[in-house]
Each structure stands twice: as C-alpha cells, then as structure tokens.
Write a structure and sequence with these properties.
By secondary structure, the protein is of the alpha+beta class. The chain contains 19 helices and 21 strands. The chain has helices at residues 8-19, 48-57, 62-68, 93-105, 172-180, 239-247, 270-276, 308-315, 367-386, 399-410, 434-444, 450-472, 477-482, 496-500, 507-510, 522-553, 570-579, 584-588, 595-617; strands at residues 2-4, 25-28, 42-44, 70-76, 86-91, 110-113, 116-122, 125-131, 136-138, 142-144, 153-156, 159-162, 185-192, 195-197, 207-209, 232-236, 284-289, 296-300, 326-328, 331-338, 355-357. The chain has a six-stranded antiparallel sheet, with no helix packed on it. Bound molecules: flavin-adenine dinucleotide (FAD).
C-alpha cells in the first residue's frame, strides 16, 4: 500500500500499516522534512493531549517523539478535574524531526521522494499513484495525507504565491485532478506568526513561565525527561500595537478579501482579534523557544498575514520586543480540503474503493488531530491491503472516535480542532485511561507490538489487583472516623472505592484500614484515586453508552429513498441524501436533525428493510 505525505498523519499512517504487516511505500515531497512541525513547536494541550495519549495507546509515535524532544512540560487545567487536564510538551523542533525520522528509519516502511501528481483510479477503485517523474506505483490501498499542500497559496499582505508551506512548492497537479474528478473540494486557511530572533529580545523585562517540576508525559512509556528544560515567557500587546494593526487592516491579506477559505475561529490572527474584540486593549503572547540550540522564538498569539513592514512595526511596540528582529514574517496559507462527509468511519472514501484520507486534507488542524487520523487510516488501509479486519473506534471509546464521527457526519465549515467539550463521555475518556480503553483494541488488530503489550498487561494486572482489594474492604463509619476519615454516621459499611470517592480522602489514608493496600505502587494508587472520583458518574454514563452502542449497531438500510421521504425539510433531505448515514446514531448527529425527522427516518428504515427480501425474491 501507499501513503502520500510525510507529515504527522502520513508518518503515523505508514507506521501503523507497517505494524499491521502491510508492505508500505511512503511517498513524500522532501524526505528531509518528514515530521516537520509546520507551526508551533509544541504538542498536546486541552483535548489535543487526549488524542496524543490515544495515539500512544495504539502504539503510535507522536507521544514518544514529543517526550524525547520535550524542553518544557506542563499539565494544563491542573486545578480542574482529571478528565479535562491536558498534557503539553514544548519541543525542540530539530530534535522532534530527528526523532520522527529515526522511527521511520528503523521501520520496514520504504520512503520514496517524489510528487504524486495523480491518483490512478479505474472503475471507482484505486490502483496506485502516478509520480511527477512518470513512475507509476501500484497498490490496493492508498492513504492521502497532503496537509496544506493541495492547491496551497501563501499570503503575506498584498502578496500571494503558490506554496505548500513557507519555502515548499504546492501540489497543484494532484489538486487539479481531484477537482476535475469532483472530489468535493473546499478551501480553508490557517496562519502562523513571524519568527523572532531570541538574542534580540529583552528577556529581563518579561514574565517567566517555567514548566512543571513533575513532568506529565505524553507517552505512557516515558519515564524521565531527556533534554534540558527551559522556560517560556509571557508578554502582552499594548494599545500602540493595536493602533498600528488597525491603521493597516486593509493591507492584511485576510481583511482585504484576498482569501476565500475560512480560518480557525478559536485560533484567530492578531488582526482578527483586534477587529473582533475591539474593546480589549491587550492580548497575551507566549514566547516559546524553538529549541535548545536555536536562536528562534515562536510568539504564540500573533499569527498574521499583514505585510512584513507592518509586522515589524507592530512587533516593535510589544513590551520586551522593542528591538526584536524578525527572522521570517508570519503568513496565512489557503489550501484545498476534501469534504470529510465523503468518508466512512474508517476514513475510507465512499466512492473510490481503497482510498483513505487523513489529516489536514480532511479539514482538521493540528499535529495531534492529524496523527490520530493517520493511525486509523493507516490501520484500515492495511486491512484493505491484507484483507484483514478494519479498525473502528466509537465516541464512547476515544476522542479519536469523537473526531472521526464529527468529521464524517457533520463535515467542517472551519478547520476542526479537538476540545474536551466535543466529547459527551469525557468523564470516561481521560488521559490516564487511554491505554485501558485502546491498547487491547489496538492489539486485537495487530497495531500494538509485543513489548508494549507485555508492559500493558502487567499494568492492567496491578490495577485489577488494587481494585479487588478496594472492593473487598468493608468499613463501618466508626472504623473510618477512628482513622480520621470523615463519613456520615449512617451505619452503612463502605468499600474502599466508596471511601476513596469522598472529597479529601487519599489512597494513603486507606492503607491504615487495609494493610494490603501498601503493596499497591504509587502510580497505580494515583490511577485508582482518579477512577474512584468518577465511580458514581461513570455508573450513570455506562447506561448512556450501552444505549449509544446499541444505536451505533442499528443499521440504516441503504435502500431508503430520502428524496421521496415527505415531511423532511429540504435541507435535511439533501443532507441525508448526500451523507446516507450508516446508523441511527449517525443520522441523529446530522446538523439540524430533529426528533420528528428522526422518527420519519426510522419509519422509512422499517419499510425499506421490510421491502428488501421481497424485492430480492421477486
Ligand atoms: P502536513 O504536516 O502538512 O504534511 C503534509 C505532507 O504531505 C508533507 O510531507 C508533504 O511533503 C506531503 N505532500 C503533499 N502533497 C504531496 C504530493 N502530491 N506528493 C507527495 N507528497 C505530498 N496547527 C495547529 O494545531 N495550530 C496552528 O496554529 C497551526 N498553524 C499552522 C500554520 C501553517 C502556516 C501551517 C502550514 C500549518 C499550521 N498548523 C497548525 C497545522 C499543522 O501543521 C497541521 O495540521 C499538521 O501538520 C497536519 O499534518 P498533516 O500530516 O495532515 O500534513
């Protein structure tokens, strides 16, 4: 099989397919840029950190690469509940790339440098790809992960030119073929800030933001930091910065109307922030080092497509940056994406057999979103190549399931990024239990190697032993109070989980009540504490999940004629006709679906299923 693209989606797709046993050829424009971080040198964060843990649980590499190149680790939302905490690593850009390339070099993936100019599709079935040099590569399955390169156009102020990313050519021929073949192409945009020269910044005047002393890693396998740790710094825009930007808004590519694609609302450019939030006279900027041996700094918060001279003028008005030199101006990039509603939950194209898509091409943004889709698409392309079982992950099992379901049922109107609020079962989908949720599933389809599997089983056994001891405890209120644990004197005996779920009761306190708990290792005790905190909620959620899974399983007949179904709004009719949801749950999640419309669909489903056998026998 073939993977097109050596970005975060392509790397994971190729490695996942190879772990499953497929013979993989990875075609990419420049093999020295495999694993390139196109934008900020950081991995993880809220929602995104969950995805990285899930990639890791499936034996993907993003978490290990981020940890190996991490120069600052922070656990975001530390003061909130464990379900919404997000581990984040500031990475050394060069070390990150080197580590990514090392994983590829030690795998069985065959890397080919070249440009895929067209997909070879015969009678609705992928047969391979054609390279710019005229070479044809044949395959039963192809994964497309072209990032921002398809029809990419870079904008800085009044200037724009074709490019896939700063300094790299766009993939225009493939874009033309896919447009002609009516692939349902749309345009999106994203942007990046200017890069600053570190030695030109007045660091002493800035607020320092150190990392955590007790690093929370992105991979379950990492035990210690490998690199020196450095702080980030914080500064703010000031009224004069806003004046410069406001005076030059008409020169911004985005505001002058040069860009048609929509950008991420939650990650706006500095000119967007200033025009949308006109009442705010200051915005926070994080100055993030690009690496231990790099003299470059990434100013997170001022992504822009203003002309270079305006970027210089406004940067110099920012406290601490009065003498800052710009190494490379910020820019916006507009690119093609494929409507993800043309994909199944396996990230397989509905019309072209054997074609899979992952990453930014599906309308997402971010390394984490790309990597997670890469694992899924790679695993499923390998399944097609090897005639093996596909991999599907539902919304109750992982953020990966949430993202894919959102994409393929609702599509995107702006670049999609993960947030914890997108997951209805977020109390269950935590960073601490991503391995419990997914490593077994990964192992069952051949994604998880022996080494990780053995370690995982040892950990699961320890957890199970801890649970058994906690469940076997039976403590009266008096016994608990005698040990300083405040419980109601209601005469009810409690097990260890019930005690642990009480506010301010720690695992250590229970050890006096049950000496066997002393044998539980601290890292396992911590997991049990988190689990106990959610026990009551998880019980209730389990019923919802069972209902969801039953619904997921309830298939909708492909014979339903939505065009003729009366009572539906024309908008819903056309959405149902285009998307043809495979299940009741997928139909329910279509944007604008109402309970009344769903009843019509259910009744049409019944009729279609009733009519089917007689039609066949006629
Ligand atoms: P990429 O990492 O872009 O990789 C695409 C790969 O495909 C490359 O290796 C390329 O060589 C290869 N390729 C493309 N076409 C062909 C072809 N025809 N033949 C062979 N190989 C091909 N994410 C955020 O989370 N926050 C941000 O603020 C943010 N800002 C960004 C700003 C910019 C300017 C850019 C470019 C990206 C930004 N991103 C941001 C997005 C982030 O970089 C991507 O989401 C992520 O890298 C996508 O991974 P991917 O694997 O889909 O694509």
């Amino acid at each position: 099989m073939i993977v097109v693209g050596g970005g975060h989606a392509g790397l994971e797709a190729a490695l996942a397919a190879s772990r499953r046993g497929a013979h993989v050829q990875l075609v990419t424009l420049d093999s020295t840029r495999v694993g390139e971080m196109s934008c900020n040198p950081a991995v993880g964060g809220l929602g995104k950190g969950h995805l990285v843990r899930e990639v890791d649980a499936l034996d993907g590499v993003l978490g290990r690469i981020a940890d190996a190149s991490g120069i600052q680790f922070r656990l975001l939302n530390r003061r909130k509940g464990p379900a919404v905490r997000g581990p984040r690593a500031q990475c050394d850009r060069d070390l990150f790339k080197r580590s990514a390339q090392a994983f590829l070099a030690t795998s069985d993936v065959n890397v080919i440098e070249g440009e895929v100019v067209s997909l070879l599709i015969i009678q609705g079935c992928i047969r391979g790809v054609l390279l710019g040099a005229g070479t044809q590569l044949s395959a039963r399955a192809v994964v497309l992960t072209t990032g921002t390169f398809l029809g990419g156009v870079v904008h800085i102020g009044e200037q724009s030119w074709s490019a896939g990313r700063a300094g790299e050519a766009a993939a225009d021929q493939l874009s033309s073929q896919m447009r002609e073949a009516a692939f349902g192409i749309g345009r999106l945009k994203t942007g990046t800030p200017p890069r600053l020269v570190a030695s030109s910044i007045d660091w002493d005047r800035l607020e320092k933001q150190p990392g955590d002393n007790d690093a929370c890693f992105l991979s379950f396998e990492t035990r210690a930091v490998s690199e020196d740790q450095v702080p980030c710094h914080i500064t703010y825009t000031a009224p004069k910065v806003h004046d410069v930007i406001r005076d030059n808004l008409r020169r911004s590519a985005m505001h002058a109307g040069a860009i048609s694609g929509l950008g991420p609302r939650y990650c706006p450019s500095i000119e967007d922030k200033i025009s949308r939030f006109a009442d705010k006279d200051s915005h926070q900027i994080f100055l993030e080092p690009e690496g231990l041996r790099s003299d470059l700094v990434y100013p997170n918060g001022i992504s822009t497509s203003l002309p270079a001279d305006v970027q210089e003028a406004f940067v110099r008005e920012i406290p601490g940056l009065e003498h800052a030199l710009i190494h490379r101006p910020g820019y916006a990039i507009e690119y093609d994406f494929v409507d993800p509603r043309s994909l199944t939950h396996e990230l397989r194209h509905r019309e072209v057999e054997g074609l899979f898509l992952a990453g930014q091409i599906n309308g997402t943004t971010g390394y984490e979103e790309a990597a997670a889709q890469g694992v899924l698409a790679g695993a499923n392309a390998a399944a097609r190549a090897l005639d093996a079982e596909p991999l599907r992950i539902d919304r109750a099992t992982g953020y990966l399931g949430v993202m894919v379901d959102d994409l393929v049922t609702m599509g995107v109107t702006e670049p999609y990024r993960m947030f914890t609020s997108r997951a209805e079962y977020r109390l269950r989908l935590r960073i601490d239990n991503a391995d419990e949720r997914l490593t077994g599933i990964g192992r069952s389809v051949g994604l998880v190697g022996d080494e990780r599997w053995v370690q995982h089983q040892v950990k699961m056994e320890k957890l199970e032993r801890g649970r058994t001891v906690l469940h076997a405890m039976s403590v009266t209120p008096k016994e608990a109070v005698d040990q300083g644990i405040a419980v109601r004197m209601d005469g009810v005996r409690r097990d260890g989980f019930a005690l642990l779920s009480l506010r301010d009761v720690s695992f250590a306190e229970l050890r006096t009540l049950e000496p066997e708990l002393s044998a539980v290792a601290p890292e396992i005790a911590e997991l049990l504490e988190i689990e106990a905190g959610y026990v009551a909620y998880l019980g209730r959620q389990a019923d919802d999940i069972a209902r969801l899974q039953a619904e997921e399983a309830q298939a909708l007949s492909p014979d339903i004629s939505y065009e003729e179904l009366s009572g539906l709004s024309s908008e819903l009719r056309s959405k149902l006709t285009v998307q043809r949801p495979a299940t009741v749950a997928a139909a329910r999640r279509i944007e604008g679906m109402t309970p009344a419309a769903l009843l019509l669909v259910l009744s049409a489903n019944k009729s279609a299923k009733r009519d089917r056998p007689s039609a066949q026998s006629a």
